[in-house]
């Protein structure tokens, strides 16, 4: 998993509440277990019309936001069914951070396992960041995980809270498997000891 330290990029305003996982990545894209290639399906039912052409009104289709790395979203982002494909699709598209006042628990947990930072801010701060993001090509935010700060284009600073262990894992690019492998020597010693003491296992 790629480390998350500091991210500077265009922030796309998605001022919609209760964006569920089916909106993030519709069910027809769930046939694969590969983490790559899902970016094309991100928000596809909003990004594309029925004939497959782009919907010019959707934020990620607007020239200023095509390469957005950050999404500033309404409350309760990632609700709905459990699907790890949602953070996979965000990551494959190039989005490394979603900022909102609240996230659905399963989506929130899945983000940390895939190198995406879900940053929780107050409603007041979200309104400021949504305004920053609405500036189009000038909507550049810097998300600094070490200091837990989001810096706006005018120098304003918004702070966010994050669990210390999850912060450590993101900064070091560790998912659950990575954390376990850090104890590889101890696991190996335990297995050797167990094999000697219980050879029938």
Overview in brief:
This protein is of the alpha/beta class and 201 residues long. The protein has a single domain, classed as Aconitase, domain 4, CATH 3.20.19. The protein has helices at residues 21-24, 44-47, 85-93, 105-112, 123-133, 164-172, 176-181, 184-197; strands at 6-14, 70-73, 97-100, 117-120, 140-144, 149-151, 157-159.
Residue-averaged pLDDT: 92
Structural class: alpha/beta
Using the coordinates above, name the CATH class: Alpha Beta
- The number of distinct helices, counting runs of at least 4 residues, comes to 8
Biggest sheet character = 7 strands, mixed
Fill in the CATH topology. Aconitase, domain 4
Categorize the overall geometry: globular
What is the β-strand count?
7
Strand order of the largest sheet: 4-3-2-1-5-6-7
* Proportion of residues in β-strands: 15-25%
State the CATH superfamily name: Aconitase, domain 4
Topology as a string of helices (H) and strands (E) = EHHEHEHEHEEEHHH
**Portion of residues within helices:** 25-40%
Number of discrete domains: 1
Low-confidence stretches: none
Radius of gyration: 19 Å
Which architecture per CATH? Alpha-Beta Barrel
Q: First CA to last CA: what distance?
A: 34 Å
């Amino acid at each position: 998993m790629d480390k998350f330290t500091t991210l500077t990029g265009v922030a796309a305003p998605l001022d919609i509440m209760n964006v569920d996982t089916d909106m993030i990545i519709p069910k027809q894209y769930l046939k694969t277990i590969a983490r790559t290639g899902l970016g094309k399906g991100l928000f596809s039912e909003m990004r594309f019309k029925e004939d497959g052409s782009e919907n010019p009104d959707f934020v990620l289709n607007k020239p200023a936001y095509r390469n957005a790395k950050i999404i500033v979203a309404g409350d309760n982002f990632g609700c709905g069914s459990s699907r790890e494909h949602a953070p996979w699709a965000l990551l494959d598209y190039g989005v490394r951070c979603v900022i909102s006042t609240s996230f659905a628990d399963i989506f929130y947990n899945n983000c940390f396992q895939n190198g995406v930072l879900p940053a929780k801010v107050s409603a007041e701060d979200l309104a400021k960041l949504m305004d920053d993001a609405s500036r189009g090509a000038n909507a550049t935010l810097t998300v600094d995980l070490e200091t837990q700060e989001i810096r706006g284009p005018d120098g304003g600073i918004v702070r966010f809270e994050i669990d210390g262990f999850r912060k450590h894992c993101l900064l070091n690019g560790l998912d659950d498997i990575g954390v376990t492998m850090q104890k590889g020597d101890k696991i190996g010693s335990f297995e050797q000891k167990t094999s000697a003491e219980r050879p029938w296992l």
